[in-house]
Amino acid sequence: MRLALPSGAWGEQALRGWLLTSAIISITLGLLHHADHLLRGNHIGWPFSPHVTPFTFSLAVYPLYLAGIYWTARGRLWTGYWLAATFIYPGPTPSPTAEPPPQPAG
Fold first, then answer.
1. Second label for 78, Cα 20 to 30 Å away, from 16, 54, 63, 87?
2. Of 65, 81, 82, whose CA–CA distance to 29 is shortest?
3. Which backbone phi and psi does 9 adopt, to 5 degrees?
4. 11-67 pLDDT, tens per residue?
5. CB–CB of 71/77 below 8 Å?
6. Residue 93 to residue 8: CA distance in whole angstroms
């Protein structure tokens, strides 16, 4: 069985809308996640502390996403950009040695 995507102007607009919606939701959740770390004061790095940490590198996703949202909304970029951005910046991966689970109080 073959999957058929909608063709024509309406199909492209619908797909672009879904792509932009998912990118905007992702960047919003990412910003809230980083804000949570800032407010708690844990697992932060440069530019908010003098040390370079995985937090520092995770901030690199925002210029990629903002450029992608801007150019996708104007019809200049398409799914290839988002696929490449995913492989270029897969995001920091959790590591049990980098962030141990919290110890219960008491």
1. 54
2. 65
3. -65, -40
4. 778 888 888 898 889 889 888 988 888 888 887 888 888 888 888 888 888 888 888
5. yes
6. 39
